[in-house]
Amino acid sequence: QQGKNSAGGLTGKKVLISAGPTREKIDPVRYFTNRSSGKMGFALAEAAAAQGAEVTLVAGPTDQQLEAKNIHRVNVVTAEEMYEEMHRYFPASDIVIKAAAVADYRPKNVFSEKMKKQMGPMQLEMERTKDILKSLGEKKDKQFLVGFAAETTEPLRYGLQKLRAKNLDAIVINNVATEGAGFEGDTNIVTYVNKEEAQDEMALAAKSEIAEQLINCIVRDMKDEVL
Ligand code: CTP
Ligand code: CA
């Protein structure tokens, strides 16, 4: 039995994490994006590195900086770029955590000149981006795959649906409607749920603290799989 803050639980393991939003361009001065500071994903990267993992962090546009020097950071902008980079590092990874807030849609046409406003309302046609996490779930062999779910209603029901639909080993459910949870803040409240539907509820805490607890849950569940 490992202690709560045990270092070295991930020595020799390759961990791949995605963080932050993606940004989908409309014209040279405008884009669509999601609310996401990147803090949760960056905290997970730091927590995994602190346990001895070799970490690759695929980061959408964010102001976050890494403190640990031994984390390999790959910057991306769009969902398509994030898809490419996640698939590049996926095959060699042992643990993959998708904390990023990926845009579900992007403008169907990207205009090379700035769009001028019209007199009346305007309509913009949007198309779906690729579901990166789902595509990783389809490709999974040895990887322990962890998704996030941002929900405003019935978080557990929707979270479990995503766990099954995307062939995940665990999901971190984030009730973004709760005070102290979600986006720009330094704190979060989450529930970690594994394939067996065992739930670990994590009360309001700093994202760094939540990240440590999540990494400990992952290490525990990976051990159970090996045995
Ligand atoms: N995700 C992804 N690629 C997308 C959309 C989502 O990889 N194009 C990942 C997110 O990184 C997250 C998980 O899927 O780990 C769940 O994201 P979420 O937005 O909560 O769920 P969706 O499946 O997009 O469903 P919806 O937004 O309709 O609730
Ligand atoms: Ca979504």
TrEMBL record:
Q: Which residues form a coiled coil?
A: none
Q: Which cofactor does it need?
A: Mg(2+); FMN
E.C. number(s) listed in UniProt: 4.1.1.36, 6.3.2.5
Could you list this entry's UniProt keywords, alphabetically sorted: Decarboxylase, Flavoprotein, FMN, Ligase, Lyase, Magnesium, Metal-binding, Multifunctional enzyme
GO molecular-function term, one example from the UniProt record: phosphopantothenoylcysteine decarboxylase activity
- UniProt domain DNA/pantothenate metabolism flavoprotein C-terminal: residue ranges: 10-219
The reaction(s) annotated as catalysed by this protein in its Swiss-Prot or TrEMBL entry are: N-[(R)-4-phosphopantothenoyl]-L-cysteine + H(+) = (R)-4'-phosphopantetheine + CO2; (R)-4'-phosphopantothenate + L-cysteine + CTP = N-[(R)-4-phosphopantothenoyl]-L-cysteine + CMP + diphosphate + H(+)
Positions binding CTP in this chain are 104, 114, 148, 162, 166
How is the cofactor bound, in the record's words?
Binds 1 FMN per subunit.
Q: Which domain of life is it from?
A: Bacteria
Q: Where is this region: Phosphopantothenate--cysteine ligase?
A: 15-227
Q: In which pathway does it act?
A: Cofactor biosynthesis; coenzyme A biosynthesis; CoA from (R)-pantothenate: step 3/5; Cofactor biosynthesis; coenzyme A biosynthesis; CoA from (R)-pantothenate: step 2/5
Q: What does the protein in this record do?
A: Catalyzes two sequential steps in the biosynthesis of coenzyme A. In the first step cysteine is conjugated to 4'-phosphopantothenate to form 4-phosphopantothenoylcysteine. In the second step the latter compound is decarboxylated to form 4'-phosphopantotheine. Catalyzes two steps in the biosynthesis of coenzyme A. In the first step cysteine is conjugated to 4'-phosphopantothenate to form 4-phosphopantothenoylcysteine, in the latter compound is decarboxylated to form 4'-phosphopantotheine.
Give the protein family. Answer: In the C-terminal section; belongs to the PPC synthetase family.
Q: What is this protein called?
A: Coenzyme A biosynthesis bifunctional protein CoaBC
Species the sequence originates in: Oceanobacillus kapialis
